[in-house]
Amino acid sequence: MRSRNFTRGPAQFNFEAPAFTPWPADEYREVNKLADAIHGEVCLYKHLPSGEERAVKKIQNDRLQFPDRYANSCSTVSENPKIEINVMNHLTEKITETGENGHIVKFINVHQDKNYTYVVSEYASQGELFLLCKSEQEANHIKGADRGFTEAQGKMYGCQILAGIETMHRYGVVSRDVSLENVLINGEGNVLLTDFGQAVPVFDRNQAPGTKATYTGLAGKETYRAPEMYEGSYFAEPVDMFALGAALFTLVVGTKPWDKARNTDQSYRYLSVKGLKTGTPGSFKNLTGAWGVPISTEFDDLLTGLLNPDPSKRLTIADAKKHPWFGGAAGSTAPSTTLTLSVQVEQSDTTASTSGDALEECEVVSTPPSASAAV
User: For residue 185, which of 28, 205, 338, 352 sits 20 to 30 Å off, Cα-Cα?
Assistant: First the structure.
């Protein structure tokens, strides 16, 4: 039975689907498994003719055709691998045409045999930003500093995540699942957004040109999920900006801001009462200060704008790019900067759909983050 919270909306993508060609098994050698996914697994393969390492998502054909059949009965969201393939192909075509970086993982090909579909994309050798952030927090904890990345490092990553969101929105796509788990880091240390199985169109092509689509239903991981998704119909673009705010908080502070953006959550309720609900800066600075993780006034102001519960008052991409914390120059034109991390970790077999929700709980408001409250 489908959950009542599965997405509802009139808009559909009209992107041309890529051709499914036979799986050239003699051209690929499997190296190792990288991660589990909702509808299969992601493995590292070597493409023998080119010598390139490539990521291959292997999906049972039945799951490709009927993804909702395999949704967990307790799940409130559904991922569609066909949408993921079509969106990744569409975005890759667009950024290839323009020659821009895009900060989107590049689609290479899709193959099929009688049992499986193989979605081939570029390989991001440093893995999930989620895992790098977790490792950074753990290393800092050993040094006696319970925090994530420095604001300078968070700014580098955040600038590129924002550029990736801008690329998606420019070409008519909203992820609705922006999270540190869905941000990959390539060999040069740069951001690539991935996992578009819950994506939706910006515009409703059944309406007058330029009419933005509205949706109901949940998507994404709890921590990153915007409050309006619990309350009825919503426009999709502000949802990605809210998720960006939650990601930036986690990157810098080293723990998530809340379990979910609902008044039943103690941390979210505290922030709302202290100014988040009215858009008044200071609540994040007070909270993290109580945790022993000081943040700048500019960062507090950015978080207040990105995480505003009212989507009509939330910072847009243009607003965020001009924000002082980003230096007023963030976005797709920002230089790709390689970051030297204090700790490098291997990609683990994490489940893409649940790893964000499996984070250990935030400490109570008055308690600073500890190892048990890490990302």
Answer: 28
Domains of the chain: 28-122 (3.30.200.20), 127-373 (1.10.510.10)
CA distance 328 to 334: 11
Q: How far is CA 181 from CA 14, 35, 308, in A?
A: 27, 11, 23
SS3 194: coil
Beta carbons within 10 angstroms of residue 152's beta carbon: 9
Question: pLDDT tens-digit profile of 159-191?
Answer: 999 999 999 999 999 999 999 999 999 999 999
Alpha helix (H) residue ranges in 193-311: 237-253, 266-271, 283-290, 297-306
Residues 174 and 55: beta-carbon distance below 8 Å: no
Neighbouring CB atoms inside 10 A of 126's CB total: 21
Q: pTM of this prediction?
A: 0.85
Could you identify the residue written with the tokens 């499914």? 20
Coil, strand or helix at 291:
coil
